[in-house]
Amino acid sequence: MMQLIEDRISSVIQRRSIHMSFHVTEGEGRAFIVASITSPADAREAAFLSYTQIAEVLSERGMVEVHERIFGNLSVEHDVTSARRQAFTFFGISPENPVTYIEGNPLWGKGLAGVIIHAVKADEVWTVMDSGVPCGRRWRRGGSTYLVLQNITGDNNPPPSPLNLRGDKRGDERSLQPRQMIEHAERILRENGASYKDVVRTWFYLSDILSWYAAFNKVRNEKYSEFGIMPGPGDRELLLPASTGIEGVTPSGAVCAMDLIAVIGNNENGRNTHLNTLPLLPSPQGRGNDHPPPLVGEGKGEGEHLTETCPLIRRLTSPSQLDAFRYGSAFARASVVSNGSTDLIEVSGTAAIDEHGVSLYPGDIRAQIDCTFDKVQTLLAQEGAELKDICSATVFVKQPEFAEIFYEMAAARGLKNFPCVCIVADVCREELLFEVDAEAVVKTGVKGSRGRVNNNSHRECVENEGERFSQY
Fold it and tell me: Can you give the residue ranges of every domain in the chain?
């Protein structure tokens, strides 16, 4: 049974006020930790407070972080990572584990926006190395192998200037680096007994996204076609991963970087069981078949005859949004990993886009936020889940002042303590002002009878010159 804990912390350290929202969702040997800085603060002090809390959780629960993302300005990266090292070292946690640092600007302009961590208790956890550099984590849980790759890039040469990205002088850069990046990820996957067909989730961070997102999509589509996962005419099976593609720069200086999650099956074929079907598009006359045929499994099981030794993977489409690959973006709206008594739902970056692939409510931030919440809720409802089942999320707003509106509208939906890091970033279309991606966990069971388990505690801590007082 999942045990959910949400902690809200207001802290004061050495007379400098740091307001941090801290959430832990834990159960079935897995935890999601979200530390979000909610007001201007010194980056190093905010990072040290965040990582002290994170390290305490990991140490107390005997867990290991397997996916770690930091959002903040590149100018404070050294301060943030130094504080991380200090806190982890104090608690006996290796600071050399892989981490992805993304320039996700906080609402006030400069500093640390927050940290998102996925941690596990597992039979075995390894650090994945690439040319002597830590690049991911691999672990076994419930008889299956999971693989996270982080901060994967192509060419590490400095990125071209925005002028060159938009012009013709170095136009190859827009295809070369993403191609190399995806091929780099595929090579590491194969070295670890997996392939791109095992990938259930990707995150792509693209410098100056609005100037070349179409070029990126072209390369991704071509590579996914080579890997055999790009849907073609008449295909009834969806193998694309859930994904986020967003504005972001990493310290490597590469034009693009990616993280991913893969799940490696444990049946005699070394394959997962997939239940993924594509709905048929309605005909121009409106007589399309809206009801897909019975689900067909890939691997050992079909339909209800599923193996108990490998995870069940599902890629979801949405009844309220056109499949993204139908308008040129190769990803599924969500992926579900069912293993044991819980389902992990990986929700792709979602914005106000309708069932025809058209952007909605240009210039209206409230309508876009409301629409996006509805789209995510509709998607989650297919798995008997709801917005309150989200255990970690990233919120992207085009302008800082939109964040207050988001928090207000989230609270109105009963999500006052929504576990997210909110950053200022461009979304993939100029007219889109808001996007959210998420990870949700629900109990496995009959649709409509499962969902969030417990909202156990609410904790407030005040720290001042080394003394801590907690109220429950």
Answer: 123-283+295-457
Nearest to 236 by CA among 272, 202, 275: 275
224-236: pLDDT as tens digits? 999 999 988 777 7
**Is the backbone of residue 301 left (phi > 0), alpha (psi -120 to 50) or beta?**
beta
Distance CA 18, CA 100 (A): 23
Q: Measured between alpha carbons, how far is 352 from 431 in angstroms, rounded to an integer?
A: 10
State the DSSP code for 353: B
pTM: 0.84
DSSP structure class, residue 79: H
The pLDDT of residue 101 is above 50: yes
Sign of CA dihedral 353, 354, 356, 359: negative
Pick the CATH number of 123-283+295-457 from 1.10.1040.20, 4.10.280.10, 3.90.1300.10, 3.30.1330.40: 3.30.1330.40
**CA-wise closest residue to 443 among 119, 27, 61:** 27
